[in-house]
Amino acid sequence: MQTAKKVKKEQSTYKKFDSIDGSHPFKDSVPKGFVDYPARLRKGGKLAYFNFDLAREMGLMPKSHPDKLNKELESKILETFGIVIINEYDKMNSKSFPQKEIKEGTYMATRYLQMQHEDKTGRTSGDGRSVWMGHVKHRGKSWDISSCGTGATCLSPATSKYNKFFETGDPSISYGCGYAELDEGMATALFSDIFHENHVPTEQTLAVIQYEKNFSINVRVHECLLRPSHFFGYLKQGDYKSLNQITEYYIHSKYPELAKKKKKNIYELILQDICHDFAKVAALFEDEYIFCWLDWDGDNILMDGSIIDYGSIRQFGLYHSEYRYDDVERFSTSLAEQKDKAKYIVQTFCQLFDYLEKKEKTPINEFKNHKVLKDFDQHFEDYKDQNLLHKIGLNSEAKEMIFTKHRKLITEFRKDFSYFEKTKSKKGIIKVNDGITWDAIFCMRDMLRELPQIYLSRNENISDQEFIEILRSNYAKEEDLYLNSYRHEKIKSFQNHYWKIIKKVSKETNKNTSQVLLEVTMRSSVINKAERVTGDAITLITDMLLKKKEKLGVDGIYRAIKKITQFQAFDPKMKTLPKKKFFQTDLMKNVFEIVKDYREGL
Questions:
Q1: Which of 44, 112, 234, 548 could, after both became Cys, cross-link 239 (CB 3.0–4.6 A)?
Q2: Last residue of a domain, one of 509, 527, 545
Q3: Under 8 Å between Cβ of 273 and 266
Q4: What is the residue range of 142's domain?
Q5: Got the DSSP string for 84-112?
Q6: What local confidence, expressed as pLDDT, does residue 17 receive?
Q7: In this structure, are residues 571 and 565 in contact, taking their beta carbons and an 8 Å threshold?
Q8: In terms of domains, do 209 and 267 share one?
Q9: How many independent structural domains does the chain possess?
């Protein structure tokens, strides 16, 4: 039995949760930027997942807190995040709720532009099933917190389409019902943790709360949850006042020092940051085969290029550049089109800042030759070359040397690399479960992993046939692998340029080629690990975790996700998890088999 002293100490341990009460500085800064809702406690919830590491980083519990759930902690999480809003439908139907269930604060659903709304200006769109829970600061860092699945707001596509308010949980309407699903929350927790571990900018999942019928509340966290679409709505509407307010809020929250100095060129500085961030993530998404569904409205991305909303996020095993998600009324953008979409977001910010300065809106096409877009193209090309040097397996010193002294060499090698990477099946476009695709047939990670090992032992080029055998994926049929004269020349050019890079590194670092190849082999084996998770694999692993949820408990689910994340870490500087240690349980053996079987897919 717990003593009163112990209970009081544990309550004090989790006191910072009390500050997450719906209050947020955005409310005072942008009055037209949200719809505010009262809320009540949602009964019947139990914790399914909790990110102990993230909670400690946010100061929600002490650094010394173990990765272990207790009754007081679970109670505090459910009390803080387990809510459902009292929406327009409730008020119109005079629904009453016990006073003791009603939360003291109010919670905002923010307005932002979404292209699936007929309005296309952001007047009707925004957080359709989410509210912002609050804002937490700890040791010089701050986080925005929002929860998905907290009830139907007036900003959902359903309300806009049918021109009526919906009851939360209404089974007649899917997205408009206001609820989120448990598998969605757990998949996001796993996927975002893997991306975060591999330095892919992303939101993170703090908690997942399960309710009956496998509904859930999924709590997400990021330093700033504003999207470009939060700004673009006011730009499209010509609402100068609100646009200025949200921009000032963003400047003061992200650039406090610049705001204090009141620099004249502050818009230019921010525009350069946006240009740099979006060029970087566009190159990263393309090179890591991350499908994010970037589009002109800037809805599926945060202001720094971080991923948000994992509903359509995928990581492909190959360069499946023609995959498109079928969203019933339209197809998504493709992997290859994301660069131009990112560039158009930057172009829209050019228009936006010009409008703020001149108080008069200039047509978007007038900015297509803006200097910052040329910067975007250059940054994009820089990152593409740097990313490939990293994937080859060069260390930081060697990467910088090749990039600065032998730029033409890596650019030429990239042309050879891209030829094989982009080669597709002769089958053409086919249907898949959630859209269409056109299969890529070559696995470039296999080549970059295997080639330095072969060169280390043989010190000579490999034959065309062996080259193709290393590259070929399970999608490749015999008719796809025909060795015509052009392909023969590309195989020869690929190997010659690869050798030139190795020899340049050898000469500049005073190491012999064997030493360089050995180091490249060690690094490349981690960076280009064969067992890399894909979107399909995440779905299957999530299903398996949910089936074992009761047996594992919250602590066990957390440990399982951390172990999978460690296994999926591709930073050669970090200590990787040995396969022997990973295979200690049947669960992890099954995870490995799923990742291996689906490693080339969508």
A1: 234
A2: 527
A3: no
A4: 4-222
A5: EE--HHHHHTT----GGGEEEEEEEEEB-
A6: 95
A7: no
A8: no
A9: 4
The length of the chain is: 602
The pair of structure tokens assigned to 209 is 């709360």
What is the rounded CA–CA span in Å between residue 209 and residue 211?
7
- Report which residue type is found at 340: D
SS3 570: coil
Say which amino acid occupies 2. Answer: Q
- Residue-wise pLDDT for 160-169, tens only, equals 888 899 989 8
Q: What is the spatial distance between Cα 178 and Cα 552, in angstroms, rounded to a whole number? A: 29
301, β-bridge pairs: 307
Phi, psi values for residue 367, rounded to 5°: -105, 10
- DSSP reduced 3-state for 499: helix
Residue 470 domain flag: yes
pLDDT tens digits for 525-563? 999 999 999 999 999 999 999 999 999 999 999 999 999
Q: Which residues contact 270 (CB under 8 A, 6 or more apart)?
A: 250, 251, 255, 353
- CB-CB contact of 292 with 285 (8 Å): yes
Q: Is residue 139 assigned to a domain?
A: yes
Q: Are both 480 and 523 inside the same structural domain?
A: yes
* Half-sphere exposure (Cβ direction) of 182: Cα atoms closer than 13 Å: 19
Residue 93 structure tokens:
């139907």
The residue type found at 388 is L
35, 95 Cβ separation under 8 angstroms: no
Q: How far apart are CA 558 and CA 189, in angstroms?
A: 10
Please state the separation of Cα 590 from the chain's center in Å. Answer: 25
Threshold 0.90, pTM exceeds:
yes
Answer yes or no: are the C-beta atoms of 542 and 190 closer than 8 Å: yes
549 contacts 560 by C-beta, under 8 angstroms: no
CA 351 from chain centre, in angstroms, equals: 26
Do 103 and 159 lie in one domain? The reply is yes
Residues 191 and 538: their CA atoms lie apart, in Å, by 7
Query: What would the two tokens of residue 402 be?
Result: 């090749």
C-beta of residue 222 within 8 angstroms of C-beta of residue 144: yes
